[in-house]
Amino acid sequence: MKRTEYALIAVAASVLLAGVGCGDGGSAADGGADGETVATAAAVVEIMNANCMPCHAGADAQEELALDSIEGLMAGSEHGAMVVPGDAATSQLIKNLRGDGAVRMPYLKDPLAEADIKLIEDWINAGAATS
Predict the structure, then answer these.
(1) Gap between the terminal Cα atoms of the chain
(2) Distance of alpha carbon 111 from its chain centroid, rounded?
(3) Average of per-residue pLDDT values in the chain
(4) How far is the C-alpha of 125 from the C-alpha of 89, rounded, in Å?
(5) Who has the most CB within 10 Å: 16, 40, 93, 104?
């Protein structure tokens, strides 16, 4: 597949995931009792789809790290695990997002919003549930 096809798949996945677990049709990251973001696998995938595509999608994913699904994230990269459930501080994903001893990701793009990184950290620290 070409990069444009991956981009279209990523957009379609984002649209589908936006409604997962949200009866009101809101974003997968919405739903906290006081309007705060909820750290769920669907919310993490939504952030990844919005920021990590098309570089980390499908069979041609860079570093063999497919971030277009929670299964791809949990499978890790050619360098090993990206997530240590229960320990965001040692998770390579967080190190990459913050540029902590690694090239900051997303590469050559604006860094993720602190709220998005915090949501991913919260999800990891809570055990990185895949559903």
Answers:
(1) 28
(2) 13
(3) 80
(4) 9
(5) 93
